[in-house]
């Protein structure tokens, strides 16, 4: 009897090579399995999926039909958008938006002067790109351009008139004097001794004269260029005064948002520092202001600015009707900004404060050079979120009679020229697209910054 | 013998100018002086200006006849016999009404959407994401205009009302619903309800104790529900059905009877609810994500199923993260209800800062009262939410 070994047993089978890999069964992989696992895994889930699909199927084609397929793109009046006049179902009346976009952009700003607004828009765009584009050079000059030069240019160009031109001349004289001063200082840095610390002065002394105080000289040069161009424009084209009552549209919306941003940030820093101050009275006043403003709706602040501000100043200085909500919005945003920045200040470890103090820095030097740069970097997403809120809140000025973008749309809706059944839906859609793009863009930017800042913490 | 001079040199006394204490006092006194001067000059100017414009000051207007009517009122109010003080109350109650209903609804909607965004159901989570992105990136005022002017205003007029089931009619004057009329005997139903609440709480405490002692579980939810619904229902039939409805009747030109819910209220409520829900959804999502996955896995390892895991492990921990921002969203909703003025819902701002201010011209008093009301609401709400937050907070050593 032989051993029934594998060698000689004829019925034995041994696999000598690996099998071809089989695809996973259809019930665990592939699109059908994914759909089953993610969309129809249980009765509730199935119901949810069906409801969602039903919502999408009923709304999306309807929206596409209304806003694109059946939309009217050209036309000069309401007849172009009336179904019985053109003999087909009519969707959105984009012809109305195309006809009125000038009004939506500038309000009632005189047509012949709109180039002034365009220049300010362009400067605004340059400033935004300069500050927000990560790789743009010379961020400090950019900040100076956006936070100092742009407001001045906006005031002079948008308002115009004798006062603005006189203001511009004074500014030019001041910048020229400053330029001369720094040119003198470049050759005789010793004169700056009483004002700049000896260490900084030593640095400047080590440089050749034309490189000394370069930062300051660049800022002054930029200011001089901007003011000079403005003065030339004023010379050649003239800057007649355009009353703020004529301003409106996107221009006013951006103006309010920009003023809110430009003033709320420094004010918020001051208030946040005040709230964390060890001096009880300063702390108390900051807390009262912040908590008071945060506790009331923006509308009441606007009503207060509108009705009470004129009472609080002498009759002859009664503020302009556009200036009042600007003050209200700026103060309101500052309180929210202060809380965001306070969060950043609290997140800075105590060692940073102690390190700065052990180096012999004073309070303001410590804040300016050590604490605030770090704290502000941390809370950039929070700051941008506040800006988004501020941008959305600019619509509220319509309630106190300012013609912002939304109000100009409302105003055209009662105008019989474009009174059709679909005008309102078109106007609101246009406003929604505008606000959505602005706010969504800001939030995307803040997310990208957040990710960039978190890159160092990633493991 | 030489004496050793042990006297240590006293540090040279620094100039007072560099003493931080003195400096601090100086700054504070300076700031106080500036603020005081600003307040004083503002008050001084206000007095001069008010005198020049011949506007009275003080709160004397409170008891003057109002002379205007308000369409939605929770307390009796008429143009002829009511005062500005009563107008204030009507507005305040309307604000509180829309805010409280809005808070409840937006919490439910917000939690639903927040959880949906984390759902494994792809379609559901994407839809929730689109909802949140769209709602949060559009101004509330635009949304209110949309609901009021583009959705509710184009509804048919009263003659062609849309009839919904249950004798509810929808037209451009709002929602006309059956008006409940309570007979005096209805109080028994109310009493029965409160007894049911007490019994339910008692049963819950008892069953909890039983469970801790013996491990036996009771169907808490079913029994509580049965108590809360059954007992009042029993009382309702026992006391001879004391509730009747005044049904709206479709007449030739108009609807008569019923209870009218104004379109302004509906638009404001929908707008505030959907807007705030978008923010609450993000708060909820962040809260749930803040609970680490290990917690869920540990709960599963202990043998808990998905429902109890969520209820007993994830949500209690997520609530700690959720509550503070949820509070501020509730406050935002209350403050945002002041946008009612844009669509004409008679809330506090519309009635008081709008009509009363225009009629009396007493800006300082009216705006101050309005702000004081919102401040009080804010402070009271955050006070209670802080108490709740403290109870929920992690107890550490």
CATH homologous superfamily placement of the largest domain in chain A? MetI-like
- The class by helix and strand makeup of chain A works out as mainly alpha
Oligomer: heterodimer
Number of helices in the DSSP assignment of chain A: 18
In N-to-C order, the SSE pattern of chain A is HHHHHHHHHHHHHHHHHH
The CATH architecture of the domain at 98-178 and 247-289 and 318-347 in chain B would be Orthogonal Bundle
* CATH architecture descriptor text of the largest domain in chain A: Orthogonal Bundle
- For the CA atoms, what is the radius of gyration of chain A? 32 Å
| N- and C-termini, Cα separation of chain B | 64 Å
* DSSP summary: helix tally of chain B: 12
Give average pLDDT of chain A, whole number.
Answer: 87
SSE-based structural type of chain B: alpha+beta
* Total of domains of chain A: 3
Radius of gyration of chain B (CA) equals 30 Å
What is the average of the pLDDT values of chain B? 85
Residue runs with pLDDT of under 50 for 5 or more positions of chain A: none
Instruction: Describe the strand arrangement of the main beta sheet of chain B, using strand numbers.
Output: 1-2-3-8
Q: Please give the number of β-strands of chain A.
A: 0
Strand content of chain A: under 5%
Q: State the name of the first-level CATH class of the domain at 98-178 and 247-289 and 318-347 in chain B.
A: Mainly Alpha
Which two protein chains have the largest interface (Cβ within 8 Å of the partner's Cβ), and how many residues from each?
A-B, 56 and 53 residues
